[in-house]
Amino acid sequence: xxxxxxxxxxxxxxxxxxxxxxxxxxxxxxxxxxxxxxxxxxxxxxxxxxxxxxxxxxxxxxxxxxxxxxxxxxxxxxxxxxxxxxxxxxxxxxxxxxxxxxxxxxxxxxxxxxxxxxxxxxxxxxxxxxxxxxxxxxxxxxxxxxxxxxxxxxxxxxxxxxxxxxxxxxxxxxxxxxxxxxxxxxxxxxxxxxxxxxxxxxxxxxxxxxxxxxxxxxxxxxxxxxxxxxxxxxxxxxxxxxxxxxxxxxxxxxxxxxxxxxxxxxxxxxxxxxxxxxxxxxxxxxxxxxxxxxxxxxxxxxxxxxxxxxxxxxxxxxxxxxxxxxxxxxxxxxxxxxxxxxxxxxxxxxxxxxxxxxxxxxxxxxxxxxxxxxxxxxxxxxxxxxxxxxxxxxxxxxxxxxxxxxxxxxxxxxxxxxxxxxxxxxxxxxxxxxxxxxxxxxxxxxxxxxxxxxxxxxxxxxxxxxxxxxxxxxxxxxxxxxxxxxxxxxxxxxxxxxxxxxxxxxxxxxxxxxxxxxxxxxxxxxxxxxxxxxxxxxxxxxxxxxxxxxxxxxxxxxxxxxxxxxxxxxxxxxxxxxxxxxxxxxxxxxxxxxxxxxxxxxxxxxxxxxxxxxxxxxxxxxxxxxxxxxxxxxxxxxxxxxxxxxxxxxxxxxxxxxxxxxxxxxxxxxxxxxxxxxxxxxxxxxxxxxxxxxxxxxxxxxxxxxxxxxxxxxxxxxxxxxxxxxxxxxxxxxxxxxxxxxxxxxxxxxxxxxxxxxxxxxxxxxxxxxxxxxxxxxxxxxxxxxxxxxxxxxxxxxxxxxxxxxxxxxxxxxxxxxxxxxxxxxxxxxxxxxxxxxxxxxxxxxxxxxxxxxxxxxxxxxxxxxxxxxxxxxxxxxxxxxxxxxxxxxxxxxxxxxxxxxxxxxxxxxxxxxxxxxxxxxxxxxxxxxxxxxxxxxxxxxxxxxxxx
Length: 949
Ligand SMILES: *Cc1c(COP(=O)(O)O)cnc(C)c1O
Hints:
InterPro entries: GcvP, GDC-P_C, GDC-P_N, GDC_P, PyrdxlP-dep_Trfase, PyrdxlP-dep_Trfase_major, PyrdxlP-dep_Trfase_small. By secondary structure, the chain is α/β, with parallel strands linked by helices. About 35% of the residues lie in helices and about 10% in strands. Among the domains are: about 220 residues, Aspartate Aminotransferase, domain 2 (3-Layer(aba) Sandwich), CATH 3.40.640; about 240 residues, Type I PLP-dependent aspartate aminotransferase-like (Major domain) (Aspartate Aminotransferase, domain 2), CATH 3.40.640.10. Strand 24 and strand 25 form a beta hairpin. Helix 20 crosses helix 21. Bound molecules: pyridoxal-5'-phosphate.
């Protein structure tokens, strides 16, 4: 007898081998190989198993990660450049960042089960709006650099002129921001001019926008009002990239006349993570809020007239607007925005001001000490960053600081920048003075502060939420109260098609908060980040092996950003061959909305290819479009398996004919969970893909981010991968397309999660996960098919890793919509499947390999019981307008109310299945009125009176 060893794969994959056998029997297969042979077209199957290291146990993986972590060296970083030391309050670290109740939630598209995180995001929006002095802020951007680039695009859209002129960028803007802006400007045909604006705008030339940094990268704080006024006179939109902590003291951009403020909220309690993830932000003046990119949380009402939150204007986002969308952002930085918002809730306005004053005080002490020691200070007016002139001595000073455990910023041979932050102490200041050789000169700062005339007198964070949770007990309970309102993966399966809500294992999550990963500044000397570089190189290589590509870059910090990077690579490749005229991007009608939006950002024209009745790319239409656009063809962008959840047999033909026409093939890799170990896009004809590490590779969705969207390419596109101005190691320097993200390796801080997943699954576990995902989807499809038509299937009547339940005929016959079913599922304790994407009036279900058989059955039984309820509507036993489906979800308050007047019982409303008696999720609100909220746009914390009846 041998004792069975439980591997990580056994834990990650929900059903046991016996359960798998039962599931196979249900769909009529003897074994999984036979199922896969029928489901996956032979033409795309790989002949080569994954060549990856054998699976590590959970403890062995942690040991290896500890080794890698030990190769990073944690120094105190006073580098600045947009990233600052910060203290994550323990109550936020443990109860948000390390808490699956928060990190495993999905984007709040279903607002009824998302009230907790929506409130947290509304706090974040209020923080940004108050501190910037602008009325509307969104619920996060991907980082500061991309936020600035999005602001440029917004300003460009606002300029009505045919020749809008240039986007003028002050030379004191963060260097990585300038380059991200340049990368984005090129394909849009926008001219970017970088100039020193300290003495005002240049006299000539048309401008549509101006970008300023506040405080500047050099640390200088200037009164921006004069240059803002000049710019407005010239008809330009003014974008100010501002530091939120500085804004607790300084006059905010809104009061200086800025139209748009952007920046990062990193220093509000979010660790460096070697570059991310952090929440960027954007706030805008009145009148342009409907142009705001990204997601916006707003206030609306529920069916009972109660205040409730939901994503505002969301239906206008990509799925409907596509190539007219305001941006391609889908996954954003929700978890980090929640953390930053909570940091402000915990400290309140007074606490933030105390932190800011302390930081400023250390900077003043440092400047005074340097001056007393004979070191010249370049700018007299600063907040946290002191720029010192040390002719010819910069390298020496920086090295002396490193010896003392501190990283400074070597600006050039003659200048050193020193940034103080929340973690700075008087000892740090003393050590820095020593490094400059100015130690003995410790001096009191002068009495008058140069900053004083630029200080704000307007209030901020006056809302009660920023005053009510100051004790740790109160904060703990506030976080718990919000968490309890939401449904995340820690309570139920989230069967969202196209989103791959699989297990985010604890072992995968553990390393991300280790100081050796969390506390590394993105521009720390690389010899302090050896462990990171090794981990990143291994991860990129393993992803290349999995996808069949030559090279992978992890820089893009979401799928949408990977799309842009991939399309820019295609653009660069065509241009390198003298074919810059190729600008048509073919996109099937079933594509995810980000595809079209990304193509537009890459300077391409979107041409839609039809799908046939079976949901497949219509080859006749493809040929017609190829003929029509001929020499103009740049690329086709297809999702594989398709967004319809099927393995299209014709994919290899599609790749071939597009190549023959001179185009490149982009396979959107969001559905890679159906391919890993079975097929490689790089082998079956694709040239480039992005992957979503927050789908297939276990980074949690965080309630709508963070994500990582690596881009993989074949050899000929490798020269055109993202690069970075401050890090030659991050990509091809001469030929690269420039940075796609502000940080060299994007959201490096969460890469250990995917590294751990691959290491612990090993080659066989990864393949088994794929097989398990396909099996689970087919099992669910088979169980639901008698009750709901399954819209598309491939050969042998099988689906890939997800299936679409078609409600349209049911809706026609009974009036019950897919949305009604989605909301009724809440009463059954489930998060809805993907609603009305890619086909309106349907539900797309993706169970993933991680859900065990009991949970799959619980979901199927809920769906089947709901179908019976629909039958009762059809046969007249339920009223067509007043029934448990139309009124779903039901709240406890409504059910226990004395005025229950519905034509069905309370019990059947709340406990339609016996299993619910054991565990019941109560929706905190009734169904939310989406249109009301869009008509009455309120996007910051409503005053408490608004909650009174
Ligand atoms: C999720 C998804 C994307 C976008 O990825 P994000 O990380 O959310 O930006 C693109 N295409 C498809 C098919 C997807 O499912």
